[in-house]
Specification:
Length: about 300
């Protein structure tokens, strides 16, 4: 076990927040920063204002983990409303088209099966992805056309949950999905609707899991305001990586960010000193697989 009290301690760690509907991810970051008295707060994956659920925040030195945590798979539960199309691909947007739709369970299951796995997804126009130095939503708000980028995403799991509802000539159902970094659920919903030869929007969205962090372990903003929360330490957040205790010459090499021989035959290694303080997270060296290079460097404050 890492002894945090043997190192010079400051408030560092991961805070799991259950984001409210109608809050932006930036709203949450700003609010938590104000509560904790720090400006060094970052999130590891944007949630649209419509969405609720897991928002992983990195506090102080834990912001070094943003890249690591952002790359993990995310689990969502979403409500799909078929028979409606908006400019944002969700229920909050301006209506573009409406039609009567009634599809059955077998058709939905077939469509979900088709969408499972890797495919090339078109990024929604209402997103913060940049093209030629401008965010896509800036083009949309200015009424300007732009070629939307496409990228490969991995829909690792996709299933129908709950009952199918038929109301106001619409078909409404819920899905659970486990997806790779960069997947837009709004776009996935649109693609599912297209697979069913109709139109559709995302009408609800909850992120239920990001990596190993689950919704049931998240705190509401009210909990944080009242001091009823606990930070996850950097060490605990990285406990899926193998750990190695070093001292002497090797410790000095690691502290200075040197490339070292991979005598442990691991793709990633978390190095700590004999006082159980974090030193660095190393990863396999691209140019020479027999060596390791620093990925994230830490100090006694971490």
């Amino acid at each position: 076990m890492i002894n945090l009290f043997s190192c010079r301690w400051v408030m560092n760690g991961i805070l799991l927040v259950n984001k409210k509907e109608n809050w932006t991810s930036r709203d949450v970051v700003n609010k938590v920063g104000k509560i904790l008295g720090t400006k060094k707060v970052g999130h590891t994956g944007t949630l649209d204002p419509l969405a609720t659920g897991v928002l992983v925040l990195c506090i102080e030195s834990a912001t070094k983990l943003n890249e690591i945590l952002t790359s993990t798979y995310k689990e969502y539960e979403a409500e799909i409303t078929l028979g409606l199309l908006t400019d944002t691909l969700d229920i909050t947007g301006n209506e573009l088209k409406e039609e009567k739709v009634k599809v059955n369970k077998e058709q939905i299951l077939e469509a979900l099966n088709k969408m499972t796995g890797k495919y090339v997804q078109e990024v929604p126009i209402y997103s913060a992805v940049k093209v030629n130095g401008r965010k896509l939503y800036e083009y949309a708000r200015a009424g300007e056309s732009v070629e939307l980028p496409k990228r490969e995403v991995d829909i690792k799991e996709l299933e129908l949950i709950g009952d199918i509802k038929y109301t106001d000539n619409k078909t409404i159902f819920n899905i659970r999905c486990l997806v790779s970094k960069g997947t837009y659920i709004r776009a996935l919903v649109n693609d599912i609707a297209n697979s069913l030869n109709t139109i559709g929007v995302m009408s609800k969205l909850t992120r239920t899991k990001q990596g190993k962090f689950k919704l049931e372990n998240c705190y509401k903003i009210e909990d944080i305001e009242s001091g009823n929360y606990k930070l996850i330490s950097i060490v605990e957040a990285l406990n899926n990586f193998p750990k190695v205790v070093v001292d002497g010459y090797l410790e000095n090499l690691i502290k200075n960010g040197a490339v070292i021989n991979d005598e442990w035959k691991q793709e990633h290694i978390l190095f700590i000193d004999k006082n159980n303080c974090l030193l660095a997270l190393y990863k396999s060296y691209d140019k020479d697989k027999t060596k390791l290079k620093p990925w994230k460097m830490f100090n006694n404050n971490d």
